[in-house]
Amino acid sequence: MRADATCYRHPDRRASVACQRCDRPICTDCMIQASVGFHCPEDAKAGKQEVYTSRTLFGAGGRPVVTTAIIAINLAVFVVGLTLGENALSGGSDRLTINGGLLGAGYLSTGEFIGVDAGEWYRIVTGGFLHSGLLHVGFNMYLLYMMGKILEPALGRVTFGVAYFFSLLVGAFGVLLVDPTALTVGASGAVFGLMGVLVVYQRSRGQSIMDSGLGGLLILNLVLTFAVSNISVGGHIGGLIGGLIAGWLLIELPRQSRALPSFLPTATVVALGAATFFGCLWAASQWMDPLF
Asked: Quick check: is 292 in a domain?
């Protein structure tokens, strides 16, 4: 805020601070105390300062239709997988996992070359809807529901869906960069992405992620990512980075640049998602059989 700024409601008065939410200059009569900083009367009245505590972090209102649909698809695919694999319930492989899991390149026991590098590009997406065991799918769907219940009403259904699939793609890119010959499944990359989006969302509203409980949840999941074997580091970290990027473009950029067309942030994320998809194809093509 400039030193000579005047209150937007009282042009004849010197502004003391800027609204924490909209950055408009306000005088002492217009300053309304918020949990962090001050708000202008309009933002305070509209209740735009959305505060989440550790008790209410996962209880935001609204109908998360897209979230529910994604969960339903994941669960339906898991049930189908149970009919195709003897040990699918406890983590064994089934035909869906083998045929649809994310894999840069590899060979079946028959000698058949499979994976994204073999032209099976759909694995980049289908791998994010397959899970290895009941605990795996249950934990991912629970986190997806908690994040989606907050973010979908806040971002809107289309924007939320774009953020989810962008995070999924960046997570897949991370897998193909770090471990392209490992068969990888799970929605973890996309879920980590939603945590990244939620970090940006809460910070844009002046809320501490440690006070809300999100910071502790994120730290715990990062610790498990590096401490537990058979967890995709590339997928989790890639998804988180994708979520932070999507969050900045969809939430923070419009807040800082109000003159931007409303469609531009979402269109930018879609374009980046398309670029990431082709990046996945490139990453898979870098695989080389060590026998040759």
From this structure: no
CATH code for the domain in which residue 82 is found: 1.20.1540.10
What is the spatial distance between Cα 117 and Cα 102, in angstroms, rounded to a whole number? 11
Q: 40 versus 112: which is more confidently predicted?
A: 112
Q: Residue 80 sits in which domain range? A: 65-285
Tokens 């900045």 label which residue? 248
- If DSSP codes are grouped into helix, strand and coil, which group holds residue 256? helix
Q: Answer whether residue 69 is part of any domain.
A: yes
- Do 151 and 87 reside in the same domain of the chain? yes
Is the residue at 248 inside a domain?
Answer: yes
DSSP 3-state assignment of 33? strand
Main-chain dihedrals φ then ψ at residue 76, nearest 5 degrees: -65, -45
CB burial class (10 A; 0-12, 13-18, 19+) of residue 223?
exposed
Does residue 75 fall inside a structural domain?
yes
Tokens of 270: 């879609």
For the chain, state the CA radius of gyration.
Answer: 22
Whether the per-residue pLDDT at 2 is higher than 70: the answer is: no
pLDDT in tens, 186-221: 999 999 999 999 999 999 888 899 988 999 999 999
Q: How confident is the model at residue 55 (pLDDT cuts 50, 70, 90)?
A: very low
pTM here is: 0.78
